[in-house]
C-alpha cells in the first residue's frame, strides 16, 4: 500500500514537472517573441507622418494691440488665409491700443483653451505674465513686433532698422545731403524703437540735414498726422523751408502726404515704412508727395507667423527670433499706365511677397490635404 502511494506521488510529481516545463517553454517562446511583437505594436501605434501633420480643427487666437489701417487688415488676412489652409479657425482680439485690455484678451484666450496664440505688437510689461501662463498650459505662442524674450516664444520682426536705413538714405540722396526735414514717429512700440535707432545714426551721418519738427501719435494716426502737418506747413510756408518728411509708419505717411498735397507743396517729398494696397494708390499717384516706402508684404507676415505656430503645434524646434527681409519700393519702379496692388507688386519689385519662410515639407503636405 505504501509502495503504491509512493508510485502515485512520483507520477503526480512527474506530471507537474512536465507541465511546468511546458509552461516555461511557452513563456520562453513568448519572451523571445516580445521584441518583435513590441515592434509590430509600435509600428501600429506610432503616428505616421501623415497623422503627425493632421493638425486640422485647431482654434487659433490672434491678440492685437491695434487693428488700424489697411496694413493691419491685410496682415490679418494673411493670418486667416494660412490658418484656414491648414484647416483651423482664427478668432481676433483687438485692444484698440489699450495694453491692459490686450493683457486681458490674452488671459481670455488662455481661459478659453485656444490651441495656439499669435500676438501682434504689445509690450513685455503687459504680456509677459500671460505668455508664461500660456506656455505652462502647453499653449504655444508666436509674436510679431513685440518686445518679448520669454524662452519658448518665437518672435518675428520686419528688419526695422534696414527699412528705416533704406528710406533715410534715399531721402539724403534726393536732398543732396542737406535740408530741413520733419519726422513723424511715436515711442512705445518695438518696431518704432528699432526704426528710431536707424534715424539717430542717420542724424549723425548727415549733420547738414536738420530736423525742424517731430511728432506722432498711435491714436487716429493718419488723421492726427494730417492735422499736425497742416499746422507745420503754416509755420514753414515758404518753398525750401521743408525738404522732406520721414515717417516711421504708413499711417503717418498717408496723413502727411494728404496735408502736403492739399496745401500744394509739391516740392516736399514723403518717405514711409510699411505698404498696403491703399498705400500703393498714393505711391502711384504722380500728384502725391509720397514717393517711396520700405516694407514687408503684410500678408506674408501673417502667413509666416502662422507657419511657425503650427511648427510648434507639430512639436518642431523653432528659432527664438525670425527677421523678415524688407524691400524698398519707389514710384519709379511702378507702372504709370495702371494701378497695381500688393498681390501684383512682385511683378515690378524683386523680393516682394511670396515668402517661403517658415515652410516645411509637412506643412505644404498638410495644406494640400
Automatic annotation (TrEMBL):
Residues 1-21 form the signal peptide. Residues 29-52 are annotated as: Disordered. The keyword Cell membrane does not apply. Pfam families: Peripla_BP_4 (PF13407). Transmembrane segments: none annotated. Keywords: Signal. GO terms for molecular function: carbohydrate binding. It is found in: Cell envelope. It comes from the Bacteria. CDD domains: PBP1_methylthioribose_binding-like. The keyword Coiled coil does not apply. Residues 60-316 form the Periplasmic binding protein domain. GO terms for cellular component: outer membrane-bounded periplasmic space. Belongs to the bacterial solute-binding protein 2 family. This is Sugar ABC transporter substrate-binding protein. It comes from Paenibacillus sp. SYP-B3998.
Amino acid at each position: 500500500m505504501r509502495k503504491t502511494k509512493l508510485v502515485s506521488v512520483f507520477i503526480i510529481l512527474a506530471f507537474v514537472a512536465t507541465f511546468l516545463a511546458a509552461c516555461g517553454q511557452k513563456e520562453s517562446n513568448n519572451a523571445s517573441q516580445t521584441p518583435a511583437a513590441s515592434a509590430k505594436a509600435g509600428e501600429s501605434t506610432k503616428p505616421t507622418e501623415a497623422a503627425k501633420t493632421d493638425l486640422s480643427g485647431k482654434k487659433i487666437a490672434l491678440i492685437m494691440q491695434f487693428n488700424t489701417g489697411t496694413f493691419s487688415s491685410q496682415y490679418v488676412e494673411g493670418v486667416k488665409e494660412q490658418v484656414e489652409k491648414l484647416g483651423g479657425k482664427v478668432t481676433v482680439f483687438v485692444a484698440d491700443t489699450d495694453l491692459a485690455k490686450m493683457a486681458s484678451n490674452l488671459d481670455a484666450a488662455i481661459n478659453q483653451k485656444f490651441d495656439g496664440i499669435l500676438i501682434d505688437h504689445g509690450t513685455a510689461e503687459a504680456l509677459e505674465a500671460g505668455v508664461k501662463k500660456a506656455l505652462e498650459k502647453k499653449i504655444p505662442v508666436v509674436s510679431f513686433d513685440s518686445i518679448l524674450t520669454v524662452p519658448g516664444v518665437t518672435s518675428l520682426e520686419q528688419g526695422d532698422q534696414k527699412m528705416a536705413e533704406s528710406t533715410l538714405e534715399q531721402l539724403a540722396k534726393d536732398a543732396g545731403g542737406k535740408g530741413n526735414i520733419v519726422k513723424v514717429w511715436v515711442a512705445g512700440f518695438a518696431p518704432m524703437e528699432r526704426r528710431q535707432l536707424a534715424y539717430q545714426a542717420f542724424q549723425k551721418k548727415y549733420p547738414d540735414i536738420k530736423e525742424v519738427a517731430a511728432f506722432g501719435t498711435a491714436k487716429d494716426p493718419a488723421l492726427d498726422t494730417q492735422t499736425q502737418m497742416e499746422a507745420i506747413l503754416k509755420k514753414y510756408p515758404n518753398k525750401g523751408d521743408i525738404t522732406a518728411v520721414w515717417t516711421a509708419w504708413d499711417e503717418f505717411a498717408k496723413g502727411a502726404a494728404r496735408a502736403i498735397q492739399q496745401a500744394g507743396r509739391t516740392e516736399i517729398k514723403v518717405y514711409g515704412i510699411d505698404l498696403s494696397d491703399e498705400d500703393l494708390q498714393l505711391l502711384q499717384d504722380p500728384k502725391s508727395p509720397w514717393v517711396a516706402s520700405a516694407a514687408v508684404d503684410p500678408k506674408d507676415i501673417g502667413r509666416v507667423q502662422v507657419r511657425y505656430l503650427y511648427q510648434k503645434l507639430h512639436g518642431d524646434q523653432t528659432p527664438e527670433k525670425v527677421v523678415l527681409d524688407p524691400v524698398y519700393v519707389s514710384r519709379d519702379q511702378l507702372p504709370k499706365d495702371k494701378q497695381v496692388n500688393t498681390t501684383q507688386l512682385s511683378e515690378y519689385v524683386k523680393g516682394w511677397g511670396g515668402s517661403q519662410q517658415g515652410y516645411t515639407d509637412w506643412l505644404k503636405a498638410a495644406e494640400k490635404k
